[in-house]
Design a protein that fits this description.
The chain is of the alpha/beta class. It has 2 domains: 241 residues, Type I PLP-dependent aspartate aminotransferase-like (Major domain) (Aspartate Aminotransferase, domain 2), CATH 3.40.640.10; 101 residues, Aspartate Aminotransferase, domain 1 (Alpha-Beta Complex), CATH 3.90.1150. It contains 10 helices and 14 strands. The strands form 4 sheets. Strands 2-10-9-8-5-3-4 form a 7-stranded mixed β-sheet, with helices on both faces. Helix 2 packs across helix 7 and helix 8 runs parallel beside helix 10. The structure holds pyridoxal-5'-phosphate.
């Protein structure tokens, strides 16, 4: 069967060229005579993969050599806990509540100190992100979710100002646009949206974040210093397949240039928003200025038609456009690897649906 149009929120579509490389390396990696998943994480071949992955992350994200680049396990959800366990140390932190995932981060952080929720978009149904908020004096860090996968909102750029270190859950928009990531002290992202398969989590740490985390009493596996000291992901057995795939996805980004990737992302998102702004048949969820270029969320003016649309979309080969179970409606996740053709086909399908039901 041919591959269909995949708008899954994650795990999500991967570049076909990366999948093809994976297919060939699974059976025999290079000329080692051993398959990718079968070789030791202490082998020279795997060591090269880690070096290359770290170098590519640094280049694409513009991170200097003194930033740590880690490939951890446990998903972004584990970092909700790790961030606070490493940085809070009984102090105060500012958290921006922009939806489901920031809520989960807030819940974990409360175990380790005082959490000030300095902004919440809850009342308005999480349809926006803030440009500014009141900062807490003496906050150890400020935590924000750069792209809200469920609500479909996204910070247009870096926060203008913040208290303490800046910490970002970038799970659903990492490496989707040029951004001065060196201004963010902690970036963490589960790989399964823009970077590869599930099971590997990218964490980058500024020197200031590393210094503060060094004093934490976090348990060994959660303590970032453990993994920094072990070098090359060797503290325990890492997700070797995931790290290889992430390295290949970063190579795919570098081959095109992040600018070109970002430009394509903007065009894809605009094609959908243009349609949703064109008539009352559609009701886009996020406010202008907060709209996500990764997860486009919308409803139908006539809600009773949503089930019909989903049924027809499924039959027509469009997968994954049902909104998150907590909010309903519809969502198209159009991460880096989602082809322009898939978005064009979706816009055509939706336009036809409007013509026949509007
Ligand atoms: C923004 C964001 N943060 C965190 C998570 C949780 O990630 P994980 O499943 O890797 O723990 C998700 C998952 O979709 C997400 O979209």
């Amino acid at each position: 069967m041919a591959r269909i149009h995949n708008f899954s929120a994650g795990p999500a579509v991967l570049p076909e060229s990366v999948l093809e490389q994976l297919r060939s390396q699974l059976f025999e990696f290079g000329d080692t005579g051993i398959g990718l998943m079968e070789m030791s994480h202490r082998s020279a071949a795997f060591s090269e993969i880690v070096d290359s992955a770290q170098a590519r992350v640094r280049r694409v994200m513009g991170l200097p050599q003194d930033y740590a680049v880690l490939f951890l396990q446990g998903g972004a959800s584990n970092q909700f806990l790790a961030v606070a366990n490493n940085l809070l140390q009984g102090g105060v932190a500012d958290y921006l509540d922009t939806g489901t995932w920031s809520n989960k981060a807030i819940k974990e952080a409360k175990r380790f100190g005082t959490v000030n929720v300095v902004f919440s978009a809850k009342e308005a149904g999480y349809n926006s992100v803030p440009a500014a908020w009141e900062q807490s004096a003496g906050a150890a860090y400020t935590h924000y979710t750069s792209n809200n996968t469920v609500a479909g909102t996204q910070f247009p750029g870096l926060p203008a100002s913040h208290a303490g270190l800046l910490v970002c859950d970038a799970s659903s928009d990492i490496a989707s646009r040029p951004m001065d990531y060196s201004k963010i002290d902690v970036v963490y992202a589960g790989a399964q949206k823009n970077l590869g398969p599930s099971g590997v989590t990218l964490v980058t740490l500024s020197p200031a974040a590393q210094a503060r985390a060094a004093a934490s009493d976090a348990p060994t596996m959660l303590k970032w210093a453990t993994h920094i000291a072990a070098k090359k992901q060797l503290f325990n057995t890492p997700n070797t397949l995931g790290i290889y795939t992430l390295e290949r996805v970063f190579a795919w980004i570098e081959d095109q240039g992040l600018d070109a990737v970002a430009e394509r992302n903007a065009v894809k998102a605009q094609a959908l928003y243009d349609l949703f702004d064109s008539s009352d048949f559609w009701a886009p969820h996020a406010l202008l200025g907060s709209r996500s270029q990764m997860n486009v969320t919308w409803r139908l003016g006539q809600r009773e038609l949503e089930a019909t649309l989903l049924e027809q979309a499924d039959a027509a080969g469009f997968s994954g456009i049902k909104g998150h179970r907590s909010v309903g409606g519809l969502r198209a996740s159009i991460y880096n690897a989602c082809p322009m053709d898939s978005v064009t086909a979706l816009v055509e399908f939706l336009s036809e649906f409007e013509r026949s039901h509007g």
